[in-house]
Design goal:
114 residues; mainly alpha; AhpD-like; 6 helices; 81% helix
C-alpha cells in the first residue's frame, strides 16, 4: 500500500473546496465564520482546539479532517507528543477504527513540515 502524500492530498482537497465555495458562497461564508469563531482562543487556546478537532477527525474517520487539523495543530505549536496523546484519547473513545485513523493522523502531522 502506498504512503499517503498528505501535502498533495491537502492541496487537492483545497482545490475541490474552492470549487464548492464558489458554487455555494453564502453557506461557505457561514461555515468559514463558524470555523474561525470555534478555533479563536478563549478558555481553550487554538492549539488545544485543533487537537480536539484532530481527535474528532480520527473518530469520525475523516481523511480531510486529519490533514487539515494536523496541519493547523502544527501551525498552532502542537508537538508530536501532544498529537500522540490526542490519538490515545481518540483511541479510548473510538476503539479499533480510531487506532487505524490515529496512525493516519500521525502520518499527516509528520508530513506537514515545520
Amino acid at each position: 500500500m502506498a504512503e499517503t502524500d498528505w501535502v498533495a492530498f491537502t492541496d487537492q482537497t483545497n482545490q475541490r473546496m474552492a470549487e464548492l465555495r464558489k458554487a455555494m458562497p453564502e453557506p461557505a461564508k457561514g461555515f468559514s465564520a463558524l470555523a474561525q469563531a470555534a478555533i479563536k482562543p478563549g478558555a481553550l487556546d487554538s492549539k488545544t482546539k485543533e487537537l480536539i478537532a484532530l481527535a474528532i477527525g480520527i473518530t469520525a474517520r475523516c481523511d480531510g479532517c486529519l490533514a487539515f487539523h494536523a496541519k493547523a495543530a502544527k501551525k498552532h505549536g502542537a508537538s508530536r507528543e501532544e498529537v500522540i496523546e490526542t490519538i490515545a484519547v481518540a483511541l479510548y473513545m473510538g476503539g479499533g477504527p480510531s487506532m487505524i485513523y490515529g496512525a493516519e493522523a500521525l502520518s499527516a502531522f509528520d508530513a506537514m513540515g515545520e
